[in-house]
Structure formats: C-alpha cells, structure tokens
Amino acid sequence: MIEAEGLGRKAQACRALGLARSAAYRLPCESVDSRRLRKEIIALSQQHPRYGYRRITALLRRDQWTVNPKRVQRVRRQEGFQVSKRQRKMRRQGQSTAVRQPPAPTTSGAGTLWRTRRSGAAS
For a disulfide at 53, which of 73, 92, 116, 120, Cβ 3.0-4.6 Å? Predict the structure, then answer.
C-alpha cells in the first residue's frame, strides 16, 4: 500500500511505525476454535478469580478441551487476569497488655474432686 502510493519502502514505513517488517506482509488470523477457547478461558477466569492458569487448564481439560497450559497462561496475561493475593493476617507487634485468665480446669477422670483457689480468703 505504501509502495503503491509512492510514499517509500515498506521497511522504512514499518520502522517509522515501530512494527516488524513481517507484519506488513501477512495479517494474523485466528481460527474459530481458538476464539472459542479464548472466550472460554476468559469466562472461567472471571468465574473463578482465585484460580491460576494450571487450575483453569484442568477445568478446560475436564470439559474436553485440548489445551496447553502455556497458552492459558499467555491468554490470561494478555487479558490482564492475575490471581489476587490473599491478605495476610496482621501479626501482633510487642507484648499484649490484656490481663490473662488462668486456664480452665480439665477433668482427669470420674469422681475427681475439684479445688478452687481463693485469693486473699483463708478457710
């Protein structure tokens, strides 16, 4: 197209646009099965946001798709799906200021006599 209009060579035009020269000769085409698989990967990734590419691959194979894990990983990366990390619990820093209660008594067998400690009272 560029050569036909007399604007220069394809190599120069591709360089100016930042494209590979091979892109000027052949347009990428995607098969119908590839498009359906891509839609299925996206749908499963939206349904299960905590699943990674390996688990999505297992779900697809369970549904009778023949798919490579690398392909699932590539599609998820291109579509911007990334497994969100779980928020970790905050660990306490320093010492606790809470008053600790003594542990509850446990039974050691039938007929056990219980004694309780009374602080400050003499019996």
Answer: 73
Q: Report the half-sphere exposure of 28 (CA within 13 A, side-chain side).
A: 6
Angle in degrees, 0-180, between the axes of helices 69-79 and 53-62, rounded to the nearest 10: 120
Neighbours of 122 (CB within 10 A): 4
Encode the chain (123 residues) as per-residue pLDDT tens digits: 555 555 678 888 888 888 888 777 777 788 899 999 999 999 999 999 889 999 999 999 999 999 999 999 999 999 998 877 777 888 877 776 777 777 776 666 666 666 666 665 555
Nearest to 41 by CA among 75, 77, 15: 75
CB 37 within 8 A of CB 44: no
**Cα 18 → chain centroid:** 32
